[in-house]
Amino acid sequence: MSKKGNVRIKRFNLAERVAHWSQAFAFVVLFLTGSALIFRGYGALLGAEGLRIAGMIHRIIGVSFPIIILAILLLLTPKTTKEWLRSVFSWNMSDIKFLALFPKEFFGLKVKLPAQGKFNAGEKINSLITIFGSMLMVITGWMLILQDRFSPSVIAWVHLLHASGALLMGAVIIAHAYLALGHPGSREAINGMISGTVSEKFAKEHHELWYNEVKDTNRVVVGEEVQDLKEREA
Amino acid sequence: MKLNRRTFLKLSAATASMAALGASKYRSVDNWASANERPSNITTAYSVCNSCGNRCGIMAYLRNGRLWRITGNPDDNKSGGKICTRGHGYAQMVYDKYRLSQPLKRTSDGSFVEIPWEQAYQEIGDKLMGVVRKYGPQSVFWSEYSKPISNFYGARLMAALGSPNWTTHSSTCFVGRNVGFDYTLGGLPSGDYENTKYVVFVGRSPADGMGLNILKGLGVAKKKGAKVVSVDPRLSYSAGVLADEWVAVKPGTDLALLLAWMNVLIAENLYDKGFVENYTVGFAELKEMVKQYTPEWAETITGVKAEQIRRIGRELGANRPAAFLEPGWHAAYGSNYANSTQTARATAIVNGLLGNINKPGGLCFYNRVSFGGLNPELYPTPPASPYERVDGAGVKGKYPLTLSTGLHHLLPGLAKEGKLKAGIFYSVNPGRTVPDRNYVIEGYKNLELTIVIDWQMSETAEQFADYVLPESHPMERDGIVEAIASSRPQVTMQAKVIDPVHSGGRGLDRIVSELATAMGLERFFNFTLEDLNKAMLFPLGLFPVHLKSRGIVDGDAGQWHYEFPVDGSGKPSLRTKSGKVEFFSSSFAEHGHNPLPAWQAPKVMPSGDKLRMIHGHQAYHTHAQTMNNPYLMSITKDYEGDSIWLNTETAKRLGISDGDTVQVSGNGWEAKSKVKVTQRIHPEALFVPGGYGGFAKSLVRGYGIGVNINDFLKHDTEPISGHAMMEEVLVSVKRA
Amino acid sequence: MSKYAMLIDVNECIGCYACRVACQTTNDLPSDISRIKFMEKEKGTFPETEIVVLPTQCMHCDEPACVDVCPTGASFKNEDGLVLIDYDKCIGCKYCITACPYDARTFNTSTGKVDKCNFCAPRVQRGMQPACVEACVNDARFFGEVDDSNSPISKLIAEADTAKVGGTSFYYKLPEGWDESLPEDAIKPAYVKNLTERVHPAGKALLGLSAGAVAASYVMTRVNGGHEDEE
Ligand code: HEM
Ligand code: HEM
Ligand code: SF4
């Protein structure tokens, strides 16, 4: 059995990674500051002054980060962004099959998942929720900031949507972060978001279609490159 | 003169409960710290509200020495312990950033610079004396919005200078009414609202023009079943809320309505025969004249159904003498129409037919408080001016029947003619409140010297003042003692409530005295306001300090009796020539006016799409004076109070809908306004709420808001009482 | 503790705004913030026109929507019926402004907090009348304790032409033929129900579910051959 540990496949460029972590940071801060208004015990813990500060942070981050993230994705790495978008919007039967089987995988049961592209169906869903969810949160968030210009009945809906969006996205992100950090099957993915590369093995096992596409172009060899190459050819 | 027990008890009870409670009943309530009436930092003081001519007694609450809020003084017989919207807002102006704080002098480039008081007195004194020497004292005038302090000091300064021209705002306000009543009833009686069974308001709206005493009285009377009728081209809040019945008269035709009521009362024998026989003159002539004025005839003129006119006439007769036509103020007969003075006379005459003079529930001439005066031995009285009034008020061949308060809307023209050379304007703003902007401003610009005394800027100050002298706010200074008229007259005074916010402002008493001193006239002003107040109170056994500590005290005017006034020999002694109610006025005849108020149409009549522009008060503004008041202006903004009103049908015909912006034009003037389309107004009228249309840039909150009726008027004068004619104007309106 | 109520006799309200300004000065409000709103209605055609002016302010609801949505507990219902705002706790989130069925709350930009009528609690506590009642120039406003059947306001409430705004501490007397202009009963806006009874619980459940699944996965992946990723 060859050791492929040092052969890595490039997954996300720097811009993508910065954008992702900005998004992650912003979301976590927005969730922590925003949800103090939903979880009363937590809100009480912060106290009025704390809540006021939280509200201020929420607004500052809520207004600034979406712009930063959009700028990075559209200006610095438009190509991958386009690809990402194209990929998350294209669905086929194997995606459905993946979704049907994924819960088993999630809970550690042995299962053969259909081969996936760069983003598996779960990630596509995560992406879609992030894209549309963020749009929803930004629009409703701005409406809350400018609420004096809308009628109370409009703002009533905005509140419902903003809170629903926050809670739904929160639920998704918990699972998402766990998959990246804690789940034994997909833990390797975190390296893709940190260093930008994932192990060849991970790429092949989790994103086989994508791996086949990019195994030559995106191949990055770290450390004992020669040995690895030889082994492969042998 | 008992100590004001009610207030005392109330205060001490409140204090006790405050002490007892100690801790708050409520969990950290709201703005607890600030809204707290804590005994330690809350003090109260009595004074008089200066927001309008009613001058209601107030109680000011101070928090740590700062004016916080005011309430009505519960001891005030007239206002009954209430203060209106304007009063609450006006008091707060003491802290307003737009108050004047230093004397201003206009420079050659038209702007103002601050100068010290001493310089102001010196320069004004020199220039005023210069004018007096060059053109004679009759070329100097004083113009004011009538207030007790200026009634005294302004008149005295003019007398000291030798000028006959002390003038109030009466000719654009109420002079037609006063002349009409003076020559019929010998003065202006008060309604005995509490005891009335039937009262008709002709034009006046106490719910908009704010008569707190009327509201209070009607409240009592209505509980006893009294009926209230409002004659008004507009469903005012009086007509719509206070009144049981609205008579939607065509504007300017009230006289026809009144004549028809006379007709009904006489034709149906509903008038008070005994009263007419004993206490009136000219009944035969009146009877003859009003024969023709049937309700059917009046319907054709007024648009009011004959049945309604007849029924109200009968109801008046049935309820007499506890029924009266309210003496009104400005609207139908103050200074609006060519027929206003005669309309006022007609109103007084209807009351005469009802025989309600000094009857319970009728019109009463209450006893007056007899104040003392300065001892002339110590404080020489300036001699009366030997000259005739330049505006012709009281002058034979001009306006002999009118009041001694003059005809201020004539002054700009007289300035243009060169008959007036210097003027002092006190708390009055003719630049804005007198008809015909160009006539006023162009006329007054001919003056060699114009001085404005006020606590805020005004169109007058901005447009043509040479000097602006900052008066302190009424909350910061004492005033002159005054009486509160009622069946039990009271005495009160405006008293200083807080220390001056601006060190620069001064009271009018001081400004006039110091200016007089600068002109070498100090011999006529060798007393303080305190000396004057002491002298006035002396016969009542009171001192100013009593008024300051008790707010309001009884005036010792003697027991009031419901009896027709008679002299020592039992002869009727109204202040008319005959001592009786004069249906027929020989004085009018003598000066070439119709001795009977025969029907006379207004000068102009609406037709087609030409509408009559009418105006009226809002309960939350006092003319132009409150247009920079943030509290009152925010009501205007929140409720679009500056909108003009159009009748729904009229608007439909003109293709205008509610909330549109329209262009109003008339007499060569044009202005844009938002419009309120409503069933509350006569189809031939366009209503403009009073006071708006400010063009003084320094009155920022009112600048450019709304429409000013005076801009649409041409200078004009009614011949009998000499008032302006403020609703003799037709305008057209279209969508802007 | 006694329960308080307010009654406005619309037959007497002349729409003069005296209560508004008296309230503003008494409660140190900026001039452009008012706790009282005025609704003017007219009907009929000239010259048979009628009007009413209907002042509204916080109705001090029995089950206040504003209290339900307040995330900090700043808005609360006192046992004597007063709905109050604890300004120390108000963070100006404006949820209550949206929730209030009577548009009774405004945002005070100078304090950054929400403002509304408190029946002048500081005065009521000392046995005084609210400032608006004291100021009303035509005696259209009444305030008092309703559980004392002898109090002046109880007597007025007992009169036939008095109508209660259901679920609140507010009563009106309306002129004949104007019954329909009575403010509607304090029904909690659907929004309040949706937020506090649907979205919040459902969202919290979803979060819990997600966290639970994660925890379960964590345990299970370690039990069932969790060595997959080891190289
Ligand atoms: C807080 C901890 C988070 C961690 C550890 C984390 C980790 C990761 C990782 C490792 C990937 C790459 C997965 C792959 O290889 O395809 C990823 C992708 C992504 N993350 Fe996150 N993420 C976090 C938070 C968030 C948040 C808060 C959001 C959005 C609100 C977000 C949105 C996304 C999206 C849209 C992708 C691309 C699609 C996907 O791979 O699922 N992430 N994240
Ligand atoms: C995507 C991430 C976001 C999350 C998770 C989030 C979460 C929350 C939550 C839980 C609340 C309280 C419940 C509610 O009012 O619905 C809230 C309130 C609010 N959010 Fe967000 N939010 C996000 C984005 C934004 C953005 C982008 C903006 C502004 C552009 C914004 C502006 C606000 C405002 C103004 C409030 C009202 C609360 C206050 O006044 O303190 N939020 N948010
Ligand atoms: S009226 Fe509005 S502010 Fe007042 S208690 Fe009811 S919901 Fe709360």
Walkthrough of the structure:
The complex is a heterotrimer of chains A (234), B (736) and C (231). Chain A has helices at 14-34, 40-76, 78-89, 93-106, 121-145, 152-181, 189-194, 200-206, 208-214, 225-233; strands spanning 7-10, 197-199, 219-221. Chain A has 234 residues and is mainly alpha-helical. Chain A has a 3-stranded antiparallel sheet. The radius of gyration of chain A is 21 Å and the shape is elongated. The model of chain A has no long low-confidence stretch (mean pLDDT 88). With 736 residues, chain B is an alpha/beta fold. Chain B folds into 4 domains: 5-95, N-terminal domain of TfIIb, CATH 2.20.25.90; 104-172 and 382-554, 3-Layer(aba) Sandwich (Rossmann fold); 188-364, Dimethylsulfoxide Reductase, domain 2 (3-Layer(aba) Sandwich), CATH 3.40.228; 611-735, Barwin-like endoglucanases (Beta Barrel), CATH 2.40.40.20. Chain B is globular and about 70 Å long. Chain C has 231 residues and is an alpha+beta fold. Chain C has a single domain (4-192), classed as Alpha-Beta Plaits (2-Layer Sandwich), CATH 3.30.70. Chain C has helices at residues 18-26, 65-69, 95-99, 121-124, 131-135, 152-158, 190-223, and strands at residues 4-9, 37-43, 50-56, 75-77, 83-85, 106-108, 113-115, 141-145, 162-164, 170-173. In chain C, strand 2 (37-43) and strand 3 (50-56) form a beta hairpin. Residues 226-231 of chain C have low confidence and may be disordered. The chains are: A mainly alpha (234), B alpha/beta (736), C alpha+beta (231). At the B-C interface, helix 1, helix 2, strand 3, helix 3 and helix 7 of B face helix 1, strand 2, strand 3, helix 4 and helix 5 of C. The structure holds protoporphyrin IX containing FE (2 copies) and iron/sulfur cluster. Iron/sulfur cluster (SF4) binds next to helix 2 of chain C. Iron/sulfur cluster (SF4) is lined by residues 58-61, 64-66, 83, 100, 102, 104-105, 116, 186 of chain C.
